[in-house]
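Re: the 70-residue chain
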Amino acid sequence: ISRSDAKRLNVKEGQNITLQSSKGSLTLPVVVTKHQADGTMFVPSNFAEAPVNTLFGKDDEFIQVKLKTG
C-alpha cells in the first residue's frame, strides 16, 4: 500500500487488514512502500499464506476490493 493511502486509511506497517471482493476475502499484513501507486494494492500470487486467487474468478485480471481494518 502506498504511504499516502496508509496515512489516509490510518493503517500501519504489519497491521492486519482484510480485503473483500464479491468472490471472497483475505486477511494479510500491510506493507507500506513508496513504490506502490496511490489507490492500488499488490498481493503476490505465489504465496500459500496469502491465497489471493480466493478474491477473483478465473477470467479476472484486476478486481475491485473493499479494505477492512481492525
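The chain has a mean pLDDT of 87.
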